[in-house]
Amino acid sequence: MEFIESVTITPFVMIAQDFPVFFGEVVFNGVLTGVLYSLVALGFVLIFKASGVFNFAQGAMVLFAALTLVGLMELGLPVWLAFILTMGAMVALAYAVELLVLRHLVNQPDIILFMSTIGLTFFLEGFGETLWGSNVKKLDIGIPDTPVEITGMLFNSFDLIAALACALLVTGLAFFFQYTPTGRALRAVADDHQAALAVGIPLKKIWIIVWSVAGIVALVAGIVWGAKSGVQFSLSLIALKALPVLILGGFTSVPGAIVGGLIIGVGEKIAEVYWGPAVGGAIENWFAYVLALAFLFVRPQGLFGERIIERV
Amino acid sequence: MTENGSALLNVNNIEVIYDRVILVLKGVSFHVPEGGIVALLGANGAGKTTTLKAISNLLRAERGDVTKGTIEYRNERIEKLSAHDLVTRGVVQVMEGRHCFEHLTVEENLLTGAYIRGDKKNFSDDLDLVYRYFPRLKERRRAQAGYTSGGEQQMTAIARALMTRPKMMLLDEPSMGLAPQLVEEIFGIVSRLNEEEGVTILLAEQNTNMALRYARYGYILENGRVVLDGEASTLRENEDVKEFYLGLSSSGRKSYRDVKSYRRRKRWLA
Ligand SMILES: Nc1ncnc2c1ncn2[C@@H]1O[C@H](COP(=O)(O)OP(=O)(O)OP(=O)(O)O)[C@@H](O)[C@H]1O
Ligand SMILES: [Mg+2]
Prior knowledge:
The structure holds 2 protein chains of 2 kinds.
Chain A: H1 2-8, H2 10-17, H3 21-51, H4 58-74, H5 79-105, H6 110-132, E1 147-150, E2 153-156, H7 157-179, H8 181-191, H9 193-198, H10 203-229, H11 238-249, H12 254-279, H13 283-298
Antiparallel strand pairs in A: 1-2
Chain B: E1 7-18, E2 22-33, E3 37-41, H1 48-56, E4 64-73, E5 76-77, H2 83-89, E6 91-94, H3 106-112, H4 124-133, H5 135-139, H6 150-162, E7 168-172, H7 180-196, E8 200-205, H8 208-214, E9 217-222, E10 225-231, H9 232-237, H10 239-244, H11 256-269
Parallel strand pairs in B: 3-8, 3-9, 6-7, 7-8
Antiparallel strand pairs in B: 1-2, 1-4, 4-5, 9-10
Helix pairs in contact in B: 3-6
The structure holds adenosine-5'-triphosphate (ATP) and magnesium ion.
């Protein structure tokens, strides 16, 4: 009886108590984690759409990017230079992946491509640690980390800036896809490889572009996450959180990745803060998966999963 | 067949193997003169699509390989080039079964054809030209291609290829699954493209009747070999073609012996 009350009534009383201030803070916190999930999921979606590859290495790319950035900064480079060089490294990685992996595996079954990205995961994790060491590193990119008060709610200035930067990046990408010729070509390749080849769209170039974009997205996610919780091996596990986001948003949908990430980020924070006490906490760890599972029953193609066009 | 020098495209005795083992083309040769319309005819599985893909180099994406023979476009060997290289040289294929980009609008589909010609330019002149030939697409330009009709999709596919500014178009069964009236309309547009824009056409068709009305020269493929070729008018009058590909025959039912003589001739020609 007490339990039922603690699940059905208490949380709402808590929400009402100091609404909207505390609730607003909880939601914003969720938005910030959500944007990060969105970014990682976006990396998945881009590669999946353009090359049909489920890129298991997306999380490892986040780790690798963050490690490279920290490593370069530890060498004494200024933040901006380290950032540009890391971006260069991610683009170089895209070239390498195309040259050494994708090119040789065209037309192989999807599972083989998937396996090759598992290989890439181990390579990136190992290579990153060989290069930069395996101890936890602190990442400080010089963005102030001070409390800011907006309409009575307390925020952290770093979180605000990070959320803004992520939102800008996502908007920029959405614009790129919708309105530029290259974005159009990417969507064309995602729709029909063969037809794209037939009108002369160079698939290799497109792959390099999507892997580069995914690499840069990984870098931004790595910076934000790394600055909050240190750059360490667990960064690559963030990719596991992207999976429920993909199920929720649909594997082929850019808006789906964004909205899905936000829903899961906000949802798990709310669940943790208000429902956590009733079940003894740690809801954050499994909330996303349960939500995704429930979703699979209702709408397996995801919220925005591209409708499979079937004319009869 | 001696004026090879003046041909835009020369296919010399090519052999194509899929998956390293499946021999599909067993020595196919033909020529396409500049500004011409040439038809490749034949039943299901004869090797028409394979031949076109060998030229446009879409074959590799299907694990097919030209293992013997040569393909020359403007006296340049092209077997080793990529599909992208060929499109930049002016050879574009319109694939069998239309293959529109379903989630793109009709106009976005067209613009993907201009991708190889650079990012910066504005292609409104090209769009105007294309819409002049396909006024129906202009009406449907904002529609998602996946929801347009079969005829509109076929038009989109041809128009998209036109946006690459081709010198030569390889059309694979444009009549497939379309009502006779629409087939007529599409063939009419294609022959105008040939006359007014100077686009050389290589047409693969099962619809022998239509193809021979618009093409000037035809080759008949069977089992990966050319078994017969000639001027379109000659082929139309050929008794075997009438019987086997046009579904007509001058003398009513043919006897088994005639069929056998045709078989013999085929073997000899092959
Ligand atoms: N990717 C492939 N792998 C293996 N065999 C193939 C492949 N594509 C085609 N073939 C085989 O090659 C032969 C010729 O096929 P092709 O598609 O060229 O014929 P077609 O003349 O275009 O026929 P249709 O009129 O049905 O389109 C067929 O026997 C087919 O089974
Ligand atoms: Mg065919």
